[in-house]
Amino acid sequence: MKNIRATVSILTLLLTLPAYGQQDPFPLPPKDWPTPVMDQQKFSYLLLDRFEYRAQPGKDFAMWDAQGWFGGDYNKVWIKTEGEGEVGERTERAEVQALYARRISPYWYLQAGVRQEMRPQPARNSAVIAAQGLAPYWFNVEAMAFIREGSLSGRMEAEYDQLLTQQFILQPRVEAVFASSAEPERGVGRGMNHVEFGLRLRYDIRREFAPYVGINWTRRLGETEDLARQQGREVRETAIVFGLRAWL
């Protein structure tokens, strides 16, 4: 009985083979299917992270800190710029970086490229190696190393967005700068140059547009502190800041 059933199954399969052969084995999807996700698409992003006025005893400063990128999920061209200067005077410090960024984990990019410092004069160039991403507990971190003619300097920045409400956001921020060799003409000593702490409260009128107010504290250290005293500059600076954060 089992042999008869097996024979009938084989004959049924053989009889249906021509019908399968006449059909398209790879039919096109229906016309009402949604458009597929284009995972090779290129995107762009521009962030004006800090554009602020610093009111402090004796003199007031203005500064900017912006960056933007263009590319896909894994490879990007990244541009950064920042600088500052006394209000009504020439810009004291200004730089721009052009970087290639490669995604190395879901939250981190490795960056490499060049930096040009336009101020203070004379202008100079250096190679850049950096890492940027989101550390545990949602800290935004940038760590940069600058290599120029055998000398090494670096800067590390970290900030955290604490949502008080959906529109009021408190952002603590810390920055540290170091150098392996002294440059007295630029007011830079060897070792840790300075640390900077800031606390800013911003109001998101829209996610893309947020004015803020806060306080910023800077402390020069080591040889840089000694150079500042010799040049008649302040060692500690505390400023009330008013600024704008925007992106598109």
Description:
- The protein has 248 residues and is mostly beta strands.
- The chain has one domain (44-247): Porin (Beta Barrel).
- 12% of the residues lie in helices and 59% in strands.
- The protein is built from 2 helices and 13 strands; from the N terminus they run H-E-E-E-E-E-E-E-E-E-E-E-E-H-E.
- It has helices at 2-21, 222-230, and strands at 43-55, 61-71, 75-86, 91-105, 108-119, 124-135, 139-148, 151-160, 162-163, 168-179, 191-203, 209-220, 236-247.
- Strands 1-2-3-4-5-6-7-8-10-11-12-13 form a 12-stranded antiparallel beta barrel.
- A hairpin with a 3-residue loop joins strand 6 (124-135) and strand 7 (139-148).
- The longest helix is centred in the first third of the chain and has 20 residues, at 2-21.
- The protein is elongated, with a radius of gyration of 29 Å.
- The model has no long low-confidence stretch (mean pLDDT 90).
